[in-house]
Amino acid sequence: MMRITWRNRYKFPVFLLTLALLLFLLFPFFVMISTMLKSSQEIYVRPPYWIPLALAFDNFIKVWGEYHLYSYFRNSIIVGLGTTFLNVIITLPAAYAIARFKFYGRSTILYSLLAMQMFSPVIIIISLFRIFVRLQLLDTYLGLVLANTVFTLSFTTWLMFGYFASIPKEIEEAATIDGCSRMGTLIRIMIPVAAPGLVTAMIYAFITAWNDFLFALSFINAQPRMPLTLGIYQFVGRWSTQWEMLTVAAFLALIPVLVLFFLIEKQLVSGLASGAVKG
Amino acid sequence: MEKGKIRRISGDAWMAYALLTPAVLFFVIFMFYPIIYVIMMSLYQTNRLGILMNFTGLDNFIRVMQQETFWAVTGRSFVWTILAVIVKTVLGMIIALCLNVEFLGRKTARMLFIIPWASSVPISSMLWRWVYDHEFGLLNQTLISLGITQNPPVWLGTPIWAFISCIWVDIWIGIPFMALVFLAGMQSVSKDLYESASVDGVNAAGKFFYITLPSIKQIIFIATLLSSLWTFNDFNTIYILTRGGPAGSTDILITAIYKSGFEWLRFSDAAVMAVVTFIILMVFSLFYAKMYFKGDEAL
Amino acid sequence: MKKFLTVFLIISLLAASFVFSAGQREPEKPKVTVFWALYDGLTEAYRTELQNAFMAEYPDITLDIVPVPWDQMYDKLTTSLAGGNPPELSIIGTRWIIELLEMDAVAPVEDYVNQATLDNIFDGTKEAFINGKLWGLPVAAGARILAINNDITTKVPATMEEMRQEAIRISRNTNKYGLIMPGRKHTELTDFAYYFYAAGGDFFEIKADGSYGKSLVNSPAGVKALEFMVQLAKDEVVPRGYLAQTRMEAHPVFYTGDAGYVMIGAWVESALQQAGAGFDVTYAQIPGFAGYDSAPLVITDSIALFKDAKFKDEAGLFLDFFYRDEWKARFDELIGFPPVTISAAELPQFQTPLYQVLNEAAAHAKPWPLIDGFAEMTDIIWDAISFAFLGQKTPKQALDDAARAVDQITGF
User: Which end of chain A is more exposed for a tag (fewer CB within 10 A), N or C?
Assistant: First the structure.
């Protein structure tokens, strides 16, 4: 591996700077860790302190069992996976078409993909609700999956388009010459080569769905169907907030996302970049 | 792109349309139809359930635009977006530069930087509300015990501090995306370029400005564009932290839309502001995209 | 190529039919949905038990009690009403009933519950009785009171002015705060209303036919109340961060024993318990200003039945079930509100000093005005209060502007 000599000189200062930035940016996260290990009596103490008197691990047991966190977890996973799956099904053919075919309206579609990012869910939620009532999609996983897909699709398509466009056509042509059908080329050549991009798109879709709050609030009434973000809000009462419970739940909600990031970190970064560059 | 090769398969346009059908159908049903309804609401008088009553043309627009608060809120949206995106870009760039240097624990650091982006915005905002708390919050406690100040500000209490506090949370959430994308761009820059620059005696700053920055120009463009759109529409942060207060000093367009529609049940007013938002962002992204795609024959 | 296209189209069609058919199944048995507000103290265990107990008694009915955070309740209700799919029942702030009537969204609840259930509810709490019909059953009704930390002071103030003097004394002589005053906008105007009502104020003039007229928020009473609040801030008797405190941030300062007085509701006792507070508390009436009678704010929440709901009769059965002592009294006890039912009021757990003060307060308490658009007016008045606190306007100016804006909404 090639060493970049000029960098060596900066290694230690950069390390220190990174550490300082991390301490600064992760401050709320430290507060979260401190709060979630306190007992309910230690939350409101003046002046506040960092280290809990006794580590209140039973907060975890309470939140997981008594407050049904496991069921919220399950729902979030179902909705996240559903959104990811639907995204892939729709986005693959669409992105491939934009990247590899020349047709009338192509640039319009590209522009619209970008423009779609400017619509906030807040604005269309009531109309969307009416559609969902008509389609009887309230209180269903499918409803949440559809809503989240609508708001992730433009970004994932954009990403995949960039990826497909970056694959040299020669690879594809070689396959065609070897007798692969176009469909065969897509499945056997294009998708494997574009796998990092696809993974990025999938993770993006999953995380967006996992973190959604507004759709869940509007479209889900049945408690057994509630996802995690909505479940966490149970701890915000009318007159006070159970911070120790809320932070436990927030912490648990963060873990799967971090694990995912950890697994695909490399592909994610290169995927984001190529999606952005090759547009 | 090489034109000749595309032309070779351009007879397949019909297939392209077929492949695009699911995506287009999806957008038409769940995105375009609701948006058209919003546009209709802005042109009609609506009742308290958002049902269209009678057509009033541009009356709603005239009424809303006569309100002083509308202009204040719109102006604040711009300040909010521009400030936030600039800070996100700068901090994201600094972090990306740090992470581009190989040092012990770099991979761990990269993971940790993601945390603000990985957690859900409403929940992060709640958490910040707890951090900012004047009596029980650990932020002020830390500032005092570090001796930085004995009199920490009331973060969400005064107009200026409330605005800064809200915008900081938005920035905080947005930094990791910027840093990751920039980092990816930096890693795709050929190392030979830096090598030869070193041979020529170019210093680190020179390398950044003459090699790194030009190489990732396109990435910066697209990342700041997306970030601007997201920031302009950042609703959860402000709503959870201040509900637009104190005295309207943190209200931006998207929170005003929500308030008019969902709380005051003035759906037409909300729709007018939504349409204004569309127009602003449309003009902005067209302008921006034109710059971005300039010279790219793919379009 | 053709083959691929055919396959692709079939898959798309299948997917589409899946989307549309997924909703087609009608629930095989009646389903009652209840938007259930998350009061502090109300446990998840109670919600589950209530739900299961009802379904055990009525196996033909599915009951879905949906926990909704208070902050989101109004918005969630708005969305479901505007979307044409209301729940059967929802807990609401009683003042919302006006908006709901305006939307023609509610059904008279009295037509769906037993006469016995209705008779068991105190008439005084039936605030949702409008135009000769009862549109919502009171679910929680409580007047606000003054809680005093006896470790800091034992003085029960007879007037607002006395309270201020004592608060100043506390702040000067100890490291505690004299009193709690939330100064950041939240969904309710409670904190202004305490002082406003104590100065004999009313939000609107009442016309001869009983309807509301011009806004009186800038009346001498309003100005007096806001000037007093600004003065309290200047006296530095309230927590330094009051401007950033809603009641959620402010009240815990009392629970930790760091403030002498707080104007609060009945939940204070369970909140103190939860916080592990180790000091004695006296409960008293919120005083009036000198020369005015005590007139505490009373807040009622109701449970409303929606007109377009599918299973209104079944919802009525649930209400009858819920208002039995076995459930309703436990509900009251958990959330710390005085009972709204005659039978529950006689139970021993509601004979404590706190409940005596609450009952006394209820006798001369004043509710919110029941007027369309009060959510927007609340916002306007809150902004006026903020302007005054921040010194950007004088209390008089701020309230004059607010009154003008409110009159614009009501059309006076």
Answer: N
3-state secondary structure of A23: helix
Assign B14 to helix, strand or coil.
helix
Q: Specify the pairing of strand C31-37 against strand C89-93.
A: parallel
Residue A273 contacts C where some CB pair is shorter than 8 Å: no
A234, closest residue in chain B (CA to CA): B123
Write the residue in A67, A89, A129 that is nearest to C83 by C-beta. A129
Same domain for B39 and B92, yes or no, is no
Q: Does A68 touch chain C (CB under 8 A)?
A: yes
Q: Look up the domain containing B208 and give its range.
A: 67-293
pLDDT per residue, tens digit, chain A (279 aa), is 344 444 566 778 888 888 999 999 999 999 999 999 998 888 888 888 998 888 888 888 888 877 788 889 889 989 999 999 999 989 998 998 888 888 888 888 887 887 788 888 888 888 888 888 888 888 889 999 999 999 999 889 988 888 888 777 777 777 777 776 777 777 777 777 777 778 878 888 888 898 898 899 888 887 788 898 888 887 887 677 889 889 999 999 898 888 887 777 767 666 666 655 543
Smallest CA–CA separation between A14 and chain B, in Å?
A: 6
Q: How many residues does chain A have?
A: 279
Asked whether residue B160 falls in the same domain as residue B244, the answer is yes
What span, in angstroms and rounded, lies between the C-alpha atoms of C219 and C49?
49
Residue of A39, A44, A146, A234 to mutate when probing chain C, most C C-beta within 10 A: A44
What the block records as the tokens of A78 is 């179902």
DSSP state of A75: H
Kindly state whether residue B62 falls inside one of the protein's structural domains: no
**Inter-residue contact B103 to A10 (CB < 8 Å):** no
Interchain CB distance below 8 Å, A240 and C84: no
B129 lies in the same domain as B241: yes
Of residues B278, B274, B268, the one with CA closest to residue B58: B268
Residues B182, B37 share a domain:
no
pTM of the complete model: 0.86
> Would you list the domain boundaries of chain A?
66-277
The answer, for B133 touching chain C at a CB cutoff of 8 Å, is: yes
Delineate the domains of chain C, giving CATH numbers in brackets.
31-141+299-356 (3.40.190.10), 145-296+373-410 (3.40.190.10)
Contacts with A85 from chain B: Cβ below 8 Å: none
Residue B244 lies in a domain: yes
Q: How many domains does chain B have?
A: 2
Buried b (16+ CB within 10 A) or exposed e, B137-171: bbbbbbbeeeeeeeebbbbbbbbebbbbbbbbbbb
Among B48, B135, B158, select the one facing C243 at the smallest CB separation. B158
Q: Contact, B238 vs B201, CB < 8 A?
A: no
Instruction: For residue B45, tell me if it sits in a domain.
Output: yes
Q: Examine the domain organization and report whether B4 and B151 are in the same domain.
A: no
CATH number of B169's domain = 1.10.3720.10
Q: How far is C102 from chain B (nearest CA, A)?
A: 8
CB atoms near residue A259 (< 10 Å): 10
At residue C282, the 3 state secondary structure works out as strand
Same-domain status, B283 and B229:
yes
For chain A, which chains pass the contact test of at least 3 CB pairs under 8 Å?
B, C
Domain A66-277, architecture per CATH: Orthogonal Bundle (1.10)
Whether A93 and A187 have beta carbons less than 8 Å apart is answered as no
The nearest CA of chain B is from the CA of A234 a distance in Å of: 12
